Amino acid sequence: MSNLNALSNREGSPGETPDNPDKSVERVLDELVSALRTALGGDLVSVVLFGSAVAGHLRATSDVNVIVVLRSFDTGKLDAVREVFRRDRASVNLAPMFLLDSEVDLAAQSFPVKLADIARRRRVLWGADPFAQMAIPRAAEVAHLRQGLLNLLLRLRDAYIERSLRQEQLALAVAGAAGPLRSSAAALLELEGVPASTPKQALERLALELNQPNARAALAQMSEAREKGVLAPGAASAAMVDLMALTAAMLERARRVPEVAP
Amino acid sequence: MSGLSQRAATAVTAVVALAGTATILAVESLVSGPPFLAIYAALIAVLCGVLRVVARQTDPAEVPPGQWTDPYLLAYLSGGPDLALRTVALSLVDRGLLHANGPALSVAVPGAAALVQRPVEQRLLQVVGAGADARSILQSGTLHDGCEDIQRQLRQARLIEIGPARLGSGLLRSGIAATALLMVAVARIVLAASRGQHKIGYLIALTLLGLVLVFSSKGGWSSLVSGPSRTRAGETLLADMRQLFGTLPLRAGQIQPGGGTSELSFLVALYGLAAAPAFASSTLQSWMPPAHVAPAGMAGAESSSSWDTSGSSSSSSSSCSSSSCSSSSCGGGGGCGGCGS
To answer: Which end is more exposed in chain A, N or C (fewer Cβ atoms within 10 Å of the end residue's Cβ)?
Structure first.
């Protein structure tokens, strides 16, 4: 037995890279499904993993996106799993979404880009696949893609003005652009009928196709910013400028995507 | 799973003690002087080794099934009541229910105690009331009641054990070993006296040393003064949780203040106060006991402080790492008379 005061600094020292984050995620997901089944019984329709966690190789800062599809949002039953969700948010950065099965089609219309991403990358952890028959209206997806890219462009401009005098802050903004840029790139190529295998590859392919001279270097900086949280002095400003140009080019290309399938 | 029952462990100790005693007494007439003392010292070493092994074998190793979702429970398991109380206080400050102005704590929201669920949170808010000094509150036994709830859960799950609870059989085994040592020593002294030999000073000194060793071994008297201890199951659970939360320290910079998530509580509970993100550092700094704000030249004195069971950020330059505080006599950390005692 060990005295509680004799806590080893080595054992508990922060900053150590965990042996296998993916393994922890799998374990958390197993326990989550089990807890949900026990607590919700027949109210649980399915549990679906989506986003980058589907492919594994998560970064420490990656979200683990999960959709819990329910027949009804019964707080009397869900109260029993609140602590589990709070713990899992802390342990593996679990980001849950609670959706009723009756809301799937409405969600596809309201968040078509998000749902299209889910349609591309998902793993059903338990239950029936609620997205197998989902129909995403093309016109809505095109409109939301344009809206999303314009919104991202505006946010990047704002971040540049507000943070480029503080390089470390701007590096975080560069890192934060990765998610929306990649999912937008994947959606754009899919709408054009030439989908890429992953959102990251979609963005890399678009960067080449759009003839943005510095885009590849900017994407490399973006990955580094995600990995390390910091960039070399001056690099964040240059990367942000190039990402804005890439986003604008993607938006221009998205404007040419027909709203009706060719 | 425990390798031995308490009864079997006691039987093993008795057999070894008896065999050792018989062996030494059988060869007593053949050896004298330093060789005898060497054999006697070997018996002491063997008995201490056996006591240590059987204490470990009777220690539960299996973590009971369950969802370990309470950061305060993990904080207690990790750093005792000292860390648990600071985790609670930090969480309440982060949530905006407690106001920290330097070392002064006050309840920030009227009726805050009714807004929290855990007994230890309610107790802390009640004790703080209109205002209190964080250092005195967090180090005193005032919050005993609140922590007892956590301690009880850990004991029921056999993740920790408290001195008196484990003393009985451990003390019996130490007693058997001590009896064996005394029997050999007394027999040797009587036989030596009958032979007209009177140089027994070394034997008496060695016997006294042996008695101290067997009673201070695991499960002996040390159990009474060492405070709460993690069982092997507790060690296993803690290691398991640190593995599960392995990416949390890497995300510390992303934790948002406000208590929307339990990330801050789990981070501090499992990795110590030093792991807290920047927004919480100033609050923690002001909760340091006086020893920690002493001039740098006095850093050595801090090593005896029990505060830093969790590796406080402010002591990064001192020698008081969490491991260096292990010699503290406070089982529960800063509050020697606190929750854990």
So the answer is: C
Cross-chain Cβ contact B230/A4 below 8 Å:
yes
Residue at which a domain ends, from A127, A147, A168: A127
Looking at the structure, do residues A115 and A187 belong to the same domain, yes or no? Answer: no
Q: Nearest-CA distance from A40 to chain B in Å?
A: 16
Residue A198 and residue A113 share a domain: no
> How many CB atoms are closer than 10 A to CB A253?
17
**Residue B217 token pair:** 């071994």
- Contact present, B36 and B228 (Cβ < 8 Å): no
- The boundaries of the domain holding residue A110 are 20-127
Q: Which of B180, B216, B189 is nearest to B43 (CA)?
A: B180
Q: Which chain A residues touch B310 with a CB distance below 8 Å?
A: 7, 12
- Phi and psi torsions of B82, nearest 5°: -60, -50
**Measured between CB atoms, does A13 come within 8 Å of chain B?**
yes
pLDDT digits (tens, 9 = 90+) for B238-268: 999 999 999 999 888 888 888 889 999 999 9
Residue B157 C-alpha, separation from nearest chain A C-alpha, in angstroms = 15
In a domain, A1, yes or no: no
Q: What pLDDT digit, counting tens, does each position of B33-50 carry?
A: 788 888 888 888 988 888
Name the residue in chain A with its Cα closest to that of B277: A14
The per-residue pLDDT for A125 is 97
Whether pTM > 0.95 for this model: the answer is no
ipTM of predicted complex: 0.76
